[in-house]
Amino acid sequence: MRIAILTGGGDCPGLNNVIRAVVFQAIKKYGDEVFGFLYGWKGPINNLIKPLTLNDVEGLFNQGGTIIKSSRTNPYKVENGPQKVIDTLKANKIDALIAVGGEDTCGVANKLCSDFKAPIICVPKTIDNDLNATDQTFGFDTSISIVCDALDRLHTTAKSHDRVLVLEVMGRHAGWIATMGGIAGAADYILIPEEDFDIDKVAEAIKARKKEAGYAILVVAEGAKFAKEEILKDQEKDAFGHVKLGGIGERLAKAIEVKTGFETRSTNLGHIQRGGSPTAYDRVLGTRYGLTAVDLVHEKKFGRMVSLQGTKITDVDIKDAVGTLRTIDKELYEQTRVFFGNEINKIKPKIKA
Ligand code: F6P
């Protein structure tokens, strides 16, 4: 068979592990030929294609990013885009396409499958971990490890200066990175897009924490709303209609400083949390997804996405993964409130006899 692969959307650690696994599995197990479309969906629209050999994936196991590049191109926003994708697959005699991406990339794959019966298998990717129908996307584990490392560092400097420090992390619509990174790095308050917050309550919690420890650390997801409004970097939207978020950390730090009188600073972790070498967990998850994707191609299970269910890799209908996002597990988030200063406080003040 002639199998092609593309990587779409924001890059993330583990993409090269998927590519490496697809190339190994396709060539060594099935004797296939493998090709990479460059720059996500832009590749098949513009016929940007190159062969991928075992030599091309040599030493890729610990490399972040994607050797076949990525972009946020949406074929459904390009004139005749979907038909161009189909024509390019035919012109290159591609029997199957493996599309690696999040909600946007898989959403396009889902439409191409239903509009053209396109032979596509999806692999779930995003540091945000907000894709439905899988327990985890690869890239997420690496990003929360980076958040954890950043928090470890912020703790020591905050403590030295008796400061309040705010860390802004990614997560447009889901607070997975903020919550899991915040738990790992002992945040004293976590703010997420799914939960509106009351700045006065946050300030009270920070005051209580400052009294206990002398300093405080907050983690805020970029999509958390200040006074119910998203904080935008600019008004520009990408091809999937996403605005550029950014600035909630700074806004929050200023408000806390005003409300508490404590010196408060903010740090935006930005693309650092998407770069560099994948963790061992993401290397293994990406590899397992890639191996299974090629098996699905040979079973002709088109229209399916590989998925982690518990500890097993299985497959689901692509349409079950797209349409709505997987937001935070409320129970998990609520559990973290015990760390939020005075929010859960059963300690009764001692009454003098
Ligand atoms: O891919 C998801 C994501 O990392 C989001 O968390 C973030 O909002 C966005 O990408 C940033 O996109 P870009 O790299 O295009 O600025």
Describe this structure in words.
The chain folds into two domains: 2-138 and 278-320, Rossmann fold, CATH 3.40.50; 141-274 and 329-345, 3-Layer(aba) Sandwich (Rossmann fold), CATH 3.40.50.460. 38% of the residues lie in helices and 19% in strands. The protein is α/β, with parallel strands linked by helices. The longest helix is centred in the middle third of the chain and has 22 residues, at 140-161. Helix 7 crosses helix 8. The model has no long low-confidence stretch (mean pLDDT 97). The structure holds 6-O-phosphono-beta-D-fructofuranose (F6P). 6-O-phosphono-beta-D-fructofuranose binds at residues 9-10, 126-128, 170-172, 222, 245, 274. 6-O-phosphono-beta-D-fructofuranose is lined by residues 9-10, 126-128, 170-172, 222, 245, 274.
Number of helices: 11
Strand order, sheet with most strands: 3-2-1-4-5-12-13
Bound molecules: 6-O-phosphono-beta-D-fructofuranose
- SSE-based structural type: alpha/beta
Number of domains: 2
Q: Which CATH-level-2 architecture of the largest domain?
A: 3-Layer(aba) Sandwich
Helix and strand element order: EHEHEHEHEHEHEHEEEHEHEEHH
Uncertain spans: none
Number of DSSP strand runs = 13
Mean pLDDT: 97
